[in-house]
Amino acid sequence: SQQGEEDPQALSIQEGENATMNCSYKTSINNLQWYRQNSGRGLVHLILIRSNEREKHSGRLRVTLDTSKKSSSLLITASRAADTASYFCATLSNYGGATNKLIFGTGTLLAVQP
Amino acid sequence: GAGVSQSPRYKVAKRGQDVALRCDPISGHVSLFWYQQALGQGPEFLTYFQNEAQLDKSGLPSDRFFAERPEGSVSTLKIQRTQQEDSAVYLCASSLEAGGTGELFFGEGSRLTVL
Q1: Range of the domain at B73
Q2: Is residue B87 part of a domain?
């Protein structure tokens, strides 16, 4: 089963615009990570935010985390056609086992039109 | 190698055949994960290794699925008597830290199609 749900499921914008994707999750977490996946390829790690952090930046990426609402957002500023991909949030929770499982959401498909 | 390597990239199997999917993690990475990704969905956790020990196999969908990492590096995911519902992309990921607390590095995946 999947922990997180991304919203929207699909997003189409023009090059240069900002793209915002949201993620909601269900259980308490250690950290939340965002990954990107180009069609037919593996996932690439973008950014990690810990449960005691509220905001983090990396280049054109800005991630926020609201643990009281169990939600996170990923903002991509000044988008480029090359940003076209699926974006997944993933939460790290300890379910009581030996593993801190990274559980992925359903993904947002971003299309940036040139 | 520089990244996580998976083989084969594509596998077509007839229903009932056994398949073996290989993962070469980044050298020195302690943690190794297998995920299953259906079309249009996010990856779903299958199993976790810390070095050679399989610490969590709670995500394996049935006893037809078996994974091993005998020397703590290369891992193999084996699916016996494949069924059509096994068709998916199987992703392997490795991480430097134990317990899977850090960033995961993913391979390109093995796309399995069961006819």
Answers
A1: 5-11+22-99
A2: yes
Radius of gyration of chain A (CA): 14
Segment A22-30 mean pLDDT: 90
Q: Chain A residue with minimal CA distance to B101? A: A100
Q: Could you report the per-residue pLDDT of B60-107, keeping only the tens digit for each?
A: 999 999 999 999 999 999 999 999 999 999 999 999 988 767 889 999
- Say how far apart CA B13 and CA A60 lie, in whole Å: 43
Which residue in the set B50, B56, B108 is minimally distant from A42, CB to CB? B108
Residue B63 lies in a domain: yes
Smallest CA–CA distance from A89 into chain B, residue: B42
- Residue in A41, A97, A103 closest to B108 by CB: A41
- CATH for B74: 2.60.40.10
Which pLDDT band, with edges at 50, 70 and 90, does A99 fall under?
Answer: low
Measured between alpha carbons, how far is B30 from B96 in angstroms, rounded to an integer? 5
Phi, psi of B100 (to 5 degrees): 70, 35
- Please tell me the predicted confidence (pLDDT) of residue B8: 97
The full set of domains in chain A, from first to last, is 5-113 (2.60.40.10)
